[in-house]
Design a protein that fits this description.
Length: 563
């Protein structure tokens, strides 16, 4: 059983479960590891079943029960025949855990390299060579370009390295408004064309992929803990989280901005006072956090500091009317900020539309430029030919003679090349015919083997049907055997069997006596029949002798009737 546990734990590690090295048997698995292993295996076997489940066991009791119940339902839907419930994952025994994990590991998809389905022939050899070359390159350490030997230059290249500089990428996403999907489908540039330099494409892709992975891992960790404890659907939980982040971002703005006077939402004077670089009323000065701290600590007058402390003490104990005024002012500020935010959203949407239109115009202009370049390239070739022809015009006779010599030399070269081709063509044609014959024979052999395989499949199918029929017959007989009464002892059946055997023996004896009497009676009948035949013969002769001179035919007829 220890070997089975080692193989099982190795398979779980290959499936992505973080099993610690000190865990050597199923007995050492904690409920957290069991839940993580089950979720990883379900995601590998059936992603639709394992995707909604979290591999992290939440801290709350109700969330644990809910996750364990969902895991049990997924295992039953996958085909697990044993008893499985939330207790299998939270309070399970070693036997139940081993049975469940063995079932999940057996359902894991097998690796093609392990199953031996490598394509035969030259393609399989090519794949093996590619794999060996990749393993060789991965096992070789990186060497700076100036220190590379010729062999390392062939493997790692001779070009210098480029700085790892990234840039934002716009990747297509599912969902969203139809205008955005139309932009992704037509006007959006491809990913390799978005970076300004081709050397920035791999770093940008790596950074984008890493950002997506980290976001996915953060969401799994947060949904496995506070998300499940909140008992909310994922969409509602994410919406509430965005709302809380938005309110946290607006709170410093409300505290830093001065009270807005009545007037239009975007008053320039109020905006300059709220976000200007210096001024009264809570302006936000430019500079780092250190400069602000130093300014507040070392450069303020003590009288000013005392006045600020007294003002803060007064604001800590406001009156009821002041609280109501502050609440009304805060509500009006919130409404104004919401209206401003809506206007900014509308302006952003308008800018996005203009960007899409500009991108579409840019794409059309690039296409036109490409067509112009193609047309210009063809005209440049024609111009080059005409320039060469014009250069040959002043000395036309000599140039025509030179061209004639070049044409004749080219003709002789073509003839020699044709002869060389014929010399090479014969062996190649013979080799082609030989290979074609080998291919035809291989196809015949493969078709014959295919027919044999189909025959074997038919036999195996019939054997499976026969085995299934016998299994059903066996189950029927077992059910009949179990249905028979078991309260009768064996001695009663033995006594009845002995009585039946005795009756059979008596019947055999009676039948033997009857057969003996029948044989004796048959012998007596046979002797009487013979005696009768002889008597008839003698009587017939006597009647013929006696009735010949007197009665003649009637006496013979009477004798025949008597017989």
């Amino acid at each position: 059983m220890e070997e089975v546990d080692k193989i099982l734990i190795h398979s779980l590690r290959q499936a992505g479960t973080a099993v610690p090295p000190e865990v050597q048997s199923v007995r050492d698995l904690t409920p957290e590891l069991v839940v993580e292993a089950a979720v990883r295996c379900l995601r590998a076997v059936n992603p639709t079943l394992g995707a909604p489940l979290s591999p992290l066991l939440p801290p709350g009791i109700s969330a644990r029960f809910r996750l364990a119940s969902d895991l049990a339902a997924a295992c039953q839907e996958l085909g697990f025949g044993g008893d499985v419930g939330y207790q299998t994952f939270l309070y399970s025994s070693e036997h139940d855990t081993r049975r469940l994990l063995l079932f999940l590991v057996e359902k894991l998809p097998r690796d093609e390299s392990e199953s031996g389905t490598e394509p035969p022939g030259k393609s399989g050899a090519l794949l093996r060579a590619i794999g060996a070359r990749i393993r060789e390159q991965l096992g070789m350490p990186w060497v700076p370009p100036l220190c590379r030997t010729p062999r390392l230059q062939r493997l790692q290249g001779t070009s210098c390295l480029h700085p790892f500089t990234t840039c934002p990428l716009v990747l297509p996403q599912s969902g969203g408004p139809p205008e955005l999907q139309e932009y992704y489908g037509g006007a959006a540039p491809p990913v390799p064309a978005q970076p300004p330099l081709c050397t920035r494409t791999p770093p940008a892709l790596l950074e984008t992929h890493m950002a997506q992975l980290s976001a996915c891992h953060d969401w799994e960790a947060e949904w496995g803990g506070p998300g499940l404890a909140s008992r909310l659907p994922p969409q509602e939980y994410a919406g509430r989280k965005r709302l809380r982040a938005r309110l946290r971002a607006l709170e410093p703005l409300r505290q830093a901005c001065p009270p807005r006077p009545p007037g239009p939402p975007l008053d320039p004077a109020w905006l300059q006072e709220a976000f200007g670089a210096g001024g009264a009323g809570g302006a936000l000065p430019k500079g780092s956090r250190f400069t602000r701290t130093q300014h507040l600590t070392h450069e303020q007058d003590p009288q000013i500091l005392l006045q600020q402390i007294q003002a803060a003490a007064e604001t800590q104990h406001p009156s009821k009317g002041a609280e109501e005024d502050a609440g009304a002012r805060q509500a009006s500020e919130e409404a104004a900020l919401e209206q401003t935010l809506a206007q900014l959203d509308a302006a952003i949407e308008g800018c996005r539309g203009e960007m899409r239109d500009a991108q579409l115009s840019l794409t059309q202009a690039e296409a036109e430029v490409q067509q112009g370049r193609l047309a210009l390239g063809g005209r440049e070739d024609a111009l080059r030919l005409k320039a060469q022809a014009i250069e040959l015009l002043p000395d036309a006779q000599s140039n025509m003679a030179k061209l004639q010599l070049v044409v004749e030399a080219s003709g002789r070269r073509i003839v020699s090349l044709a002869g060389q081709w014929e010399r090479h063509r014969g062996p190649l044609l013979a080799q082609y015919r030989h290979l074609r014959a080998l291919r035809d024979s291989a196809q015949l052999e493969s078709s014959r083997r295919l027919s044999e395989i189909r025959t074997l499949h038919e036999r195996s199918r019939s054997a499976a049907d026969e085995a299934r029929r016998k299994e059903e017959l066996y189950k029927t007989l077992v059910a009949e055997l179990e249905a028979l009464p078991r309260d009768i002892s064996r001695a009663v059946y033995t006594q009845r069997i002995l009585e039946i055997v005795g009756n059979i023996r008596k019947q055999k004896e009676e039948i033997s006596k009857i057969l003996v009497d029948t044989r004796a009676l048959q012998k007596e009948i046979n002797s009487l029949v013979g005696k009768l035949e002889r008597t008839f013969s003698v009587t017939d002769e006597l009647l013929f002798k006696v009735g010949r001179p007197t009665l003649g035919g009637p006496i013979c007829t009477w004798g025949a009737h008597i017989h």
